[in-house]
């Protein structure tokens, strides 16, 4: 018989980031739209002196993933100013 507990546990997600290809983009605004299928976040940067913004990233999320994201953002905002090294949470 196979070990059921090992089979049912999700594998940890390892994320690699190439800083040359994935820069951090500053956001002045985030527009959120939703429907019965999920959410879309349009992340935008303001254009100085124009009253306009350009979308620099679009992110689509399921309802469940959006709920988890909202919880994680609230948790991080509550911990503002606290530095914890080596403990990154991944939403999956």
Would you give an account of this structure?
- The structure is a single chain.
- The chain has 92 residues and is of the alpha+beta class.
- The protein has a domain of 63 residues.
- It is 23% helix and 29% strand.
- It has a three-stranded antiparallel β-sheet with strand order 1-2-3.
- The radius of gyration is 18 Å and the shape is extended.
- The protein starts with a helix and ends in a 14-residue tail after the last helix.
- The mean pLDDT is 83.
Quick gist of this model?
The protein has helices at 4-8, 63-78, and strands at 29-35, 38-47, 52-61. The chain contains two helices and three strands, in the order H-E-E-E-H.
């Amino acid at each position: 018989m196979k070990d059921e507990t090992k089979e049912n546990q999700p594998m940890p997600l390892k994320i690699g980031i190439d800083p040359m290809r994935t820069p951090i983009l500053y956001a002045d605004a985030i527009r959120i739209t939703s429907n019965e299928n999920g959410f879309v976040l349009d992340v935008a940067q303001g254009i100085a002196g124009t009253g306009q913004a350009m979308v620099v990233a679009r992110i689509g999320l399921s309802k469940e993933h959006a709920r988890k994201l909202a919880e994680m953002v609230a948790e991080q905002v509550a911990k503002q100013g606290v530095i914890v090294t080596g403990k990154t949470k991944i939403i999956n």
